[in-house]
Amino acid sequence: MSNIHGISSFNNQGGGGGPGGAPGQPQAPQGQGGYGWGQQGYADMEAPGVIPAGHVSLLRVSGGAFPDLVDLFCPRFRWLCFTTIVSTVQVIMLMVSLIVGAEMFGAAFVKGNEMGGPSSQTFLYLGAKYLPNIQAGQVYRFVTPVFLHGGILHLASNLFFQCRVGYIFELRWGLANYIATYFLTGIGATYFSCLMSPKTISVGASGALFGLIGADISYLIMNWSFLPNQEKYQELCIVICILLINFLLGVSGGSDGNIDNSAHFGGLVFGFLIGFALTNLLQPEDPKGKFYRILGWGSYIGLSVICLPCIFLVVHAN
What we know:
Layout: E1 5-6, H1 69-73, H2 82-104, H3 120-126, H4 131-135, H5 152-173, H6 175-196, E2 202-203, H7 206-223, H8 229-253, H9 261-278, H10 289-314
Antiparallel strand pairs: 1-2
């Protein structure tokens, strides 16, 4: 997973470019959490056009020693689903940012942008997170950074992780819950970025992607007793490795202003909280289910209520 980038240090110098398988048991009843978008062809589909909201393995995709490329990079790929749509929008927005940078700000690629993209002013114009603008009423900047990326390398690394886990999480949690988790954690990441890095101009979907990891941790906690032992421990190891790798990348690159570690942390925290409310329970009759839902919504709303007044009344970029 790539790191969301604070791009306040980019300059406007033009010219040279710097820079599967079957689900575990138990499954949800047929039709629960499903949506009818072209997803036939997998053994775990209970009926054409229906996707169960039960567990879908993050580990086993295709059989054989060598999985095909689609299953290796985009397991459970489907053309018509949210992960494909949001990824396409992000690619389009990168092309738009390159055009805007070239036409309005002097260059599509600037030397100060190691990710291979335009200047910070380009992203500020297109809707990047920037605290003074948010405090001036441009609250759409809580959401728009999710669709923008600092450059070609930034987008490519984010898309790799997004496609590697997004299709599976979308099947697990259901369309509506997955979309809500993606955007609510992206917003939470912007909250923390405003509070902890108020001077930066930041873009990227990494906060939302960290949010997906946080929500998956909640999913594992809630369903730990119902998942196969080998699978749940392997998935937990994958999650821990992802967090450790990104922590090391953040420590090594965060000091130069190109990585917004506060957004990563915010996405992870908000994802962990909202995961208790939005990810699915494999045993709906679990007596702890209602407690998990109240805990998830209550903690997410409570933390948001704390963050928002601080953003608008306490923190100042200067």
